[in-house]
Amino acid sequence: xKKRVVSIEEGVKGELPSGTGKFNILLDxxxxxxxxxxxxxxxxxxxxxxxxxxxxxxxxxxxxSGHGRIYMEGKVYEIxxxxxxxxxxxxxxxxxxxxxxxxxxxxxxxxxxxxxQLKEKGKxxxxx
Length: 128
Description:
By secondary structure, the protein is mainly beta. It has one helix and nine strands, in the order βββββββββα. The protein has a single domain, classed as Sandwich (Jelly Rolls).
């Protein structure tokens, strides 16, 4: 039977692409039977400058702690705790994390998909 309640300790953990931080998949088709979304808690290391990439699905972030910037559609947005961010499907984006502390956030993919790449390829996911 699929789980309806998942603790952070039960999630599927691994390394984000290019060693930029860690992912923890909490809700997806395998763990909970979700069909229309997946939910992860990720943490990017302090000072990381992520690579620009895009996904074939919509996704959103909710920042739990830390500060940084997201680059999307020719704009730069300052991000920090209590902020929500939306990236439409196929829109390139990249995140840079401030030097002082890591950036911890919830990410939701809808429909699910990118979390499967993370499970299979970890730090090598999303490479073209």
